[in-house]
């Protein structure tokens, strides 16, 4: 059973391969995922702005499935904390507020500079890049993490990808350490 709780920032939910990988890890019990409706709104809005070929209904279905399969991931009632927080971008205060209220151990984000450690430490929360987060799981929960990687790879059927194509996709998602661990451990 996972003991580490990570709040996932919108930027790590935006790219489908990264979102799907993090979901596989969470559903397999590697960690407990957390997010808010505002985080969902942000990644969905940005994706729809950049991908006019996608339909809002498709992404709303993804939101619904994420909320369903990740159990208690949806954090609510955190808004009272926002006014007392001070991050470089005030628009990110809700992320930290949700992490505090949701009792997260860390915030997984590509935007490390937006969450200075000295602003998170008083709350017992760390900021971590998704590559460091995922690659650490191979040491913490090797069997579950490897199973999640295999399931993620096997789920990609349209179009079917080779191992090399899959690893290249992960590298494009800023996961070079994760790719290294997959290769070193012979997971695929």
Please describe the topology of this protein.
Blueprint lengths: L4 E4 L1 H4 L2 H12 L4 E3 L2 H14 L5 H14 L23 H9 L4 E3 L8 H4 L5 E3 L1 H11 L1 H14 L7 H10 L3 H10 L3
Parallel strand pairs: 1-2, 1-3, 3-4
Helix pairs in contact: 2-8, 7-8, 7-10
Brief descriptors of the model:
188 residues; alpha/beta; Rossmann fold; 4-stranded parallel sheet; 10 helices
CATH topology name of the largest domain? Rossmann fold
Strand order of the largest sheet: 2-1-3-4
Tally the helices. Answer: 10
Oligomer: single chain
CATH architecture descriptor name of the largest domain? 3-Layer(aba) Sandwich
* Tally of DSSP β-strands: 4
User: How many distinct domains?
Assistant: 2
CATH class of the largest domain: Alpha Beta
Biggest sheet statistics: 4 strands, parallel
Structural class, from secondary structure content?
Answer: alpha/beta
Q: Give the termini separation.
A: 24 Å
Helix content: 40-55%
- Using the CA coordinates, give the radius of gyration: 16 Å
Shape: globular
| Beta content | 5-15%
Low-confidence stretches: none
Structural commentary:
This protein is an alpha/beta fold and 188 residues long. It folds into 2 domains: 5-128, Rossmann fold, CATH 3.40.50; 134-185, no CATH class. It is 54% helix and 7% strand. The chain contains 10 helices and 4 strands; from the N terminus they run βααβαααβαβαααα. Strands 2-1-3-4 form a 4-stranded parallel sheet, sandwiched between helices. Strand 3, helix 6 (117-120) and strand 4 (126-128) form a beta-alpha-beta unit. It is globular, with a radius of gyration of 16 Å. The protein starts with a strand and ends with a helix. The relative contact order is 0.16. The mean pLDDT is 95.
